[in-house]
Amino acid sequence: MAENQIRLSQLIGYYGPGAMLDLPDRSVLVMGLDHWDQRSGAFRLIEEPRLSRLLRLRLQDDNRLATSGEPQLRTPPLDVRDPRRVSPKIRAAIFPRWFLCDAAPGDPSDRRRLVRFQQLEAPKRVDYRGDDGKRRRVSPIRFVCGCEDGHLQDVDWRRVVHQNTPGREGCQEPLWLEDGGTTGDPRQTRVYCECGASLSLNDLFQPGRLGQCRAEWPWIDNGRDPNGCGHMLRLLTRSATNTYFPQVTRVISLPASVDQLAELVRSVWSALQTCSSAEDVKLARRFNPQVAATLEGYLDDEVWSRIAVMRRSDDQEDQAENPRLAEFAMLASGQPVIGTPTPDALLHAETLPRAIWDPSKSLLLGGISSLVAVHRLREVACLYGFTRFEPAPVVTEEFEDVGLAVRGAPLARNPTWLPAVEQFGEGLFLTLDRNALQGWRDRPQVKERIAALGIGADRWLQQRRQRGENISDRAIRDQLRPEYLLAHSLAHALITEVAIDCGYPASSIRERIYISAGSGTAIPAVGILIYTASAGNQGTLGGLVEVSRRFAQVLENALERQRLCSGDPVCADHDPATAADDRTLHGAACHGCLVIAETSCEARNLFLDRALLVDTVGPSGVGFF
C-alpha cells in the first residue's frame, strides 16, 4: 500500500472506522470520525437531501447519530496535492498489540515468541530484542476477539493460557506459539507458557473460553460502550471477512425539477434547507459567499418559492416512499428525456422507442416492456455503521438491522455527520412486462420451483436459529418473491454479458433491483438498473449506453450462456432443501454461470436461479424467456 493511502470508496466500505487493515510493517485500526481531519478545505459537503432526510428518519432513535436534524454528508479528507498545505489524514491506531517474533538464525522454525507492543524496541517498534541479545522482526498476531455488538479487543493471552491452572493467573513467564503443521490449522497450533500451562488455538472457539466482553470501542478514543455488553467474546481472525461488514446505503440522485434554479438551490441545499422566508434567503446570501455567488441573478422571492416547492415535493413523495420507488417512478416514467442533458446534470436519461432496441419484434423481447439509456447518473453512497460476524441486511432499505443476530456499531461517539462519496456513471434501465410476469407466475412448474426455493429458505432460517441466532423471517422475505428472484438472476446474466460486450470490467458494473409493493395479488412493477459509477467522469464514457442499440443481441447471448453451465449437471440439479448454509438460498447458480463479483451484487450472490430464466439440463418449463 504505497504511502499508506487508500481510495475514498474504500473508506466508505471495508476500510471504514472500526476496520482493521494491514500496512507493510503492522496492522492498524481505522479510528472513528472524531479522528478524521475536518479542517476547512480538508473535505467537501455532498448535497443529497433525500439521503440526509432518509438517514435522519431511520436513525433518529439510534445511538449512532447524535443530531436531531439531518446529518451532513461529507467526503473523507481530500488530498489536493498542494505542497503549501499539510495533507489531511485519518488517524489509525496500532491493533492488535500482541506480536509474534520471526525466527532468527538458530531458532526452532516452529516456535515463535509472543510479545506486547510496549516490549518492542523503540523508536520504530518493529523489532524485539530477546534475552539472548538477538533482534527479531515482529508481525501482528492473526487473532483478536469481539462480540455480536461490534465490540473489539485483544485476546488476553495470559489469562486464557492460565485459565485452567489455578494460582498462576498472574504468571509473567514468556509465552510462545508453536505450529505443529504447515497448514495453519488451529488444532495443530498451541500457545504455551514456560511455566507449563498451554492450550490449543482450537480451544478458543469453544463458547465462553475467551470470557466476558468488556464492551470496548478501540476506534473511539479507546472508549467503551456506555450500555455495556452481556455477550461472551468470540474469536476473530484478523484478516477474515467477518471482522467488518460495512452498512452502506446508496441512492441514485434525482432531479427535483428540470429548471436551472432548482439545480442551483440543490447545490447549496445544506445552507438553504432551514430557510422559512425570503428574508432568510437574503440573510443566507449575506453571510455565505457561496450561496450569494450561486444564486446571483435570482430574486430572493424566486429562490424562496423554489425552496418551498422542493421541500413540499420531498415531504410528500420522498419521505413516504422507499428511495428505490422514487427512482423507479422517475426512470419508468416513459418521458422521452429524463433530467437535463447537460455535462453537470445529476441525471440524464432517454426512454428509447421500441423500434430502436427491438426492430424485428423479437419474441425473446416480449417480456421487456421498456428500455432506458441512462447517459449520466450520480450515485451517493453513505456509510452509517458496521457489524461483525454477520453482514447487514441485503437489498432492504430498512436501516434498523431487521432480522440481524448482531447490532450495528457506531462510527463515532456522537456523530453529527456521516462519510459519503459521490460517483458518476451511466447505465441501462429496463422494465419487465406485467402481463408476461402474470402468465409466467401462473405456470404450475414455476409455482413448484418457487415452493422448492421457499423450502430452502426455511431450512436456512432453521439452521441459523439452531445456532442460537434470533433471526426474523423479514431478513429474507422480500428477496424470496418470484419477481425478485427472476429480476436478480436476469441482472447477473446481463452484467456478465455486458462486460464482455462493452469492455467495462465486470467488477465495476453494478445492479439495482426495483420491485414495487403491489396491492393485494396484483403483479408488482419490476425494474432493473445495470450501471457503472466511479469518481470523476470515468464512469460516463458511453459504453453501457451504446449497448442499448444492440440490446436484443446482448440479451440473446446472455440467456444462451445460462442454458449450460460448466458445473452441470451438479449446478442445474442443486436442491436448496438439502443444502447447507447460504447454499439453501439459491437454485441453479454457481461461479460458472450466475455468481459475479461481490462488489457488483446487492445481495451477496444469493437468491439466484438461472432455471427461472431459461430451460437448463435440470428443471424445464420454468424459464421466463
Describe the structure.
By secondary structure, the protein is of the alpha+beta class. It contains 15 helices and 23 strands. Strands 3, 17, 18, 19, 20, 21, 22 and 23 form an 8-stranded mixed sheet that branches. It has a 7-stranded antiparallel sheet with strand order 7-8-5-6-11-12-13.
Short description:
This protein is an alpha+beta fold and 625 residues long. 24% of the residues lie in helices and 20% in strands.
Give me the secondary-structure topology.
Blueprint: H1 8-11, E1 20-22, E2 27-30, H2 49-59, E3 72-74, E4 92-94, E5 98-101, E6 111-116, E7 127-129, E8 135-140, E9 143-146, E10 152-153, H3 157-161, E11 175-179, E12 189-193, E13 198-200, E14 216-217, E15 223-224, E16 234-237, E17 245-252, H4 260-267, H5 269-272, H6 278-287, H7 289-294, H8 300-318, H9 323-331, E18 337-339, E19 347-351, H10 354-357, E20 368-387, E21 417-432, H11 434-441, H12 444-466, H13 482-502, E22 509-515, E23 526-534, H14 543-547, H15 551-563
Parallel strand pairs: 3-21
Antiparallel strand pairs: 1-2, 2-4, 5-6, 5-8, 6-11, 7-8, 9-10, 9-16, 11-12, 12-13, 14-15, 17-20, 18-19, 19-20, 20-21, 21-23, 22-23
Helix pairs in contact: 6-8, 13-15
- Could you say which overall geometry the principal axes of the C-alpha atoms support? globular
The biggest sheet amounts to: 8 strands, mixed
Gyration radius (Cα, Å) is: 27 Å
What is the residue-averaged pLDDT? 83
Q: How much helix, percentage-wise, in residues?
A: 10-25%
**What class would the helix/strand composition place it in?**
alpha+beta
Enumerate the spans where pLDDT stays under 50 for 5 or more consecutive residues.
315-321, 394-405
Number of helices: 15
Strand content: 15-25%
* Strands, total number: 23
Distance between the termini: 47 Å
